[in-house]
């Protein structure tokens, strides 16, 4: 009995430092940020409690309204576009193409670059003076126009292009691993029934990979929240604040405008939005499994 107790105690003691670091550095930081958002903090923390005043100021700030709306546009299009493209690439790879290793390396290469490098590369590609527009005009179409990156109404969509290009390889790798794990008997039974390959993927194989898709959605949602460096390198939030995102808003208010309380309120709203967006899906998955 005593030996069993010490055997169970040893792994718990090994994991204990990691748990403590997580509690203090991660969850503790969340609690501290939530508290600071209810204070009159400026450049330095100020613990004078003011309730929800910072949240009222936040949603009365036009720049925040623009950034917050852009987060939904960018997040929805980026998650859906990346999931669709990555899954399609995984299905094509699952057909055992020739030179599969080469194609896989090429498609995974963007993931090896930081968002800073990705943003700068796409800034050059989409620049009206040196990018796609200039290239097509030099081919003989002088009226061709593709200047979304400098248009207020379209700049946010250029960030979607860059983010999908950067993350599609990761989703492809995850989904390909799932596709390669599908039992071969399923494919043999489908061939015997004469089912089209596309129908088998859509109706049988992809529903089996729902847990992997959930993982992909969570990873992409995290990437949406962390997209500060992409918008800074690619558009700088411009033209004006047309392509601003909450991550840039929070960093700007914290380090440049010295408004810690308002920045903390914005960070808490970002966290609450992500939780609210993912919670119904996880609830649906949990209830479905319990049934």
Describe this structure in words.
The chain is an all-alpha fold and 291 residues long. The protein has a single domain, classed as MetI-like fold (Orthogonal Bundle). It is 74% helix and 0% strand. It is built from 13 helices and no strands.
Short description:
The chain crosses the membrane at residues 12-35, 71-93, 105-125, 154-179, 200-225, 262-284. It is a multi-pass membrane protein. This protein is mainly α and 291 residues long.
Search tags:
about 290 residues, MetI-like fold, mainly alpha, globular, 13 helices
Unreliable residue runs: none
CATH architecture: Orthogonal Bundle
Task: Give Rg in angstroms.
Answer: 24 Å
Mean pLDDT: 84
Q: Name the assembly state.
A: single chain
Largest beta sheet, briefly?
none
Distance between the termini: 39 Å
- Here the CATH topology equals MetI-like fold
CATH superfamily: MetI-like
Q: Judging from the principal axes of the Cα atoms, what is the shape?
A: globular
Portion in beta strands: under 5%
User: What is the overall number of helices?
Assistant: 13
Would you count the extended β strands for me? 0
- Total domains: 1
Q: Which CATH first-tier class would you pick?
A: Mainly Alpha
Helix content estimate: over 70%
Secondary structural class: mainly alpha
> What is the N-to-C succession of helices and strands?
HHHHHHHHHHHHH
Main location: membrane
Family: Belongs to the binding-protein-dependent transport system permease family.
Membrane topology: Multi-pass membrane protein
Pfam families: BPD_transp_1 (PF00528)
């Amino acid at each position: 009995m005593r030996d069993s107790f010490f055997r169970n105690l040893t792994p718990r003691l090994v994991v204990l430092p990691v748990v403590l670091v997580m509690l203090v550095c991660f969850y503790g930081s969340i609690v501290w940020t939530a508290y600071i958002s209810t204070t009159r903090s400026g450049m330095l923390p100020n613990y004078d409690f003011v309730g929800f005043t910072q949240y009222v100021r936040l949603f009365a700030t036009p720049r925040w309204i623009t950034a917050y709306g852009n987060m939904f546009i960018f997040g929805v299009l980026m998650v859906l576009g990346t999931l669709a493209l990555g899954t399609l690439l995984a299905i094509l790879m699952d057909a055992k193409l020739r030179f599969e290793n080469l194609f896989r390396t090429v498609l995974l290469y963007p993931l090896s670059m930081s968002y800073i490098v990705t943003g700068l590369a796409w800034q050059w590609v989409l620049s009206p003076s040196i990018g796609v527009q200039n290239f097509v005009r030099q081919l003989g179409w002088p009226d061709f126009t593709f200047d979304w990156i400098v248009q207020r109404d379209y700049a946010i969509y250029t960030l979607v292009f860059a983010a999908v290009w950067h993350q599609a390889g990761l989703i492809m790798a995850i989904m390909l691993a799932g596709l390669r794990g599908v039992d071969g008997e399923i494919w043999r039974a489908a061939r015997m029934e004469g089912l089209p390959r596309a129908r088998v993927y859509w109706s049988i194989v992809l529903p089996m990979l729902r847990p992997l898709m959930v993982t992909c959605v969570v990873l992409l949602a995290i990437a949406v929240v962390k997209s500060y460096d992409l918008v800074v390198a690619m558009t700088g939030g411009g033209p004006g604040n047309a392509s601003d995102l909450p991550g840039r808003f929070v960093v700007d208010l914290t380090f440049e405008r010295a408004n810690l309380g308002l920045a903390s309120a914005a960070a808490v709203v970002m966290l609450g939005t992500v939780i609210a967006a993912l919670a119904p899906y996880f609830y649906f998955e949990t209830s479905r499994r319990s049934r």
